[in-house]
Amino acid sequence: MEPGRYRACVADVNLGHSSMKGTPYVRVVFRVIEGECEGEDIEHFMYLSDKTEERTFVTLRHMGFQGDDIGVMLPEDLPNVMEILVGEETFNHRTMLRVLRLARDGELSSPSMDDASRQSLADRMKRLARRFPPMKPAASSRTQPLPMGAQSPQRNGVQQSPSQRHLGQRAPGDDVDDMIPF
């Protein structure tokens, strides 16, 4: 299986808990139902922590779950065909495929705007742009951000704070490992 979008149905479902923190989860095995990867399976884990249990249950409803007892849930209890987005993820120096997003069949991609909607949005954004005119660069600011790892500018021998630096510059010691990619 390669990264990409696939139509899939549920081939297996069970409950478990993570080995590290003991967080309960619903494990769903999706089976691709068309295309070159037809018949291939991929696991998806939906965690049931205080922060994620609501989203997990809503996702189960989208998958067609009608009951209220996930302890007896079977694959046939999740009958809806789903569209899954599969991508690569690296964890502990190991790259693997995983389900990045899932939606009811046909809902993963947002539909394009029609011409009238596009024009309406553009007009609204123009009005907003007029309320927030472009900022003029400070006389001493750079026109280009510093490359990653480059020394951040100092003013009068004092290291500038992040709010004083030009957007995109990093000070030595800035921790970039905790940045979340989007």
Q: Using the CA coordinates, give the radius of gyration.
A: 24 Å
Topology pattern, helix = H, strand = E? EEEHEEHEE
Mean pLDDT, nearest integer? 78
The largest β sheet comes out as: 5 strands, antiparallel
Helix/sheet category: alpha+beta
Structure description:
There is one protein chain. By secondary structure, the chain is an alpha+beta fold. It has a domain at 7-80. It is built from two helices and seven strands, in the order E-E-E-H-E-E-H-E-E. It has a five-stranded antiparallel β-sheet, covered by helices on one side. A two-stranded antiparallel sheet has the order 6-7. The longest helix is centred in the last third of the chain and has 17 residues, at 115-131. It is extended, with a radius of gyration of 24 Å. The chain starts with a strand and ends in a 23-residue tail after the last strand.
What layout of secondary structure does this protein have?
Elements: E1 4-17, E2 24-32, E3 41-47, H1 53-62, E4 82-91, E5 94-104, H2 115-131, E6 154-155, E7 158-159
Antiparallel strand pairs: 1-2, 1-4, 2-3, 4-5, 6-7
List keywords for this structure.
182 residues; alpha+beta; five-stranded antiparallel β-sheet; two-stranded antiparallel ribbon; 2 helices; 15% helix; disordered C terminus
Q: What is the structure about, briefly put?
A:
This protein is of the alpha+beta class and 182 residues long. The chain is built from 2 helices and 7 strands; from the N terminus they run βββαββαββ. The protein has a domain at 7-80.
